[in-house]
Amino acid sequence: MSLPDGNHDPVTFWNNFRSYIDFMRRELGVLNIEFQPKPGRGLYAQMSASPDTATIRTRCDSAITPVTLANHHWQIEELLFAKKVLDTVPAAVLVDVGANMGLFTRQILGWCGNVKRTFAYEPEPANFACLLHNVACFDNVVPEMVGLAETDGVFRLFLDLQNCGNNSLVSDDLAGAQTKGATEVRVINAAVEARRWLEDGLPIFYKSDTQGYDEKIITLLPDEVWDNVVGGVIEIENIDKPEFEMAKFVAFLDRYENKVILDRPETIVSTSEVLGYLHRGKGPGVDLGFWK
Q: Is 219 helix (H, G, I), strand (E, B) or coil?
């Protein structure tokens, strides 16, 4: 699979490609697609023991899968940013909240040899099954089929059946979703779970992509955790989300003098500018990178 050349309309190409994958899921019953990433690409597990047999397994969705098949990477800007931050420390712990199919974790572990332990949280069972496959080539991952919340319990997870990354514990108002579903998933106390991240005494790289829960989880975590987080990536988006303590979220942002929107990584943004993204009209979110 290759990107269209100058003789093909890229919009038509992507629409046809996504429609074909959607057809395979709906009409042929294809659940997953598995492929071997090319050497040098983000999803190639070059730091694993057997990178040439460490395949990627994705859900047969029409959003994430077409991109990974065409590019053999996923949100490469996150990998480039995380690697830049992780290169500043000799060893680190990776925390991936809302890990989905494990593509972020897979890319970090494939390209950053100093990550000694990884905690990956994904509550949706089919996504979690792909995550297990995608990180099986590494022996330093602690995968957990749970979400993080204020207390232990069972939540209703709203699903976009065509985009396995567009799921939400907050609302069924899933932007762009044409077919929806729901399932019950387990959640655990974020503040209690975070104590495990500190056990190795290493700096932490923190990534969170939870469709509306990022700010809530951030404000639930104790200061001791943030004292050890050297950098991370979160999503900033004005969508339905649970109430959270704004003062604590502002204090979190103020901890990190260096903040960038990942599609403009050369421009440092202030806390007030970040809050501007949080409060602007509803629309696509932005990925915020931060580091000390």
A: helix
- Three-class SS of residue 288? strand
Q: How far apart are CA 129 and CA 190, in angstroms?
A: 22
Separation of alpha carbons 278 and 164, rounded Å:
24
Q: Which residues pair with 181 in a beta bridge?
A: 159
pLDDT in tens, 225-284: 999 999 999 999 888 899 999 999 999 999 999 999 999 999 999 999 999 998 876 667
Separation of alpha carbons 198 and 225, rounded Å = 7
Q: Is the distance from CB of 106 to CB of 35 less than 8 angstroms? A: no
Question: Alpha helices of the chain — where are they, by DSSP H?
Answer: 10-28, 64-71, 76-86, 103-111, 125-135, 190-193, 214-220, 223-228, 246-255, 271-279
- Comparing CA positions, the residue from 184, 75, 186, 59 lying closest to residue 121 is 186
DSSP track, 123-165? --HHHHHHHHHHHTT-SSEEEES-EEESSSEEEEEEEETT-TT
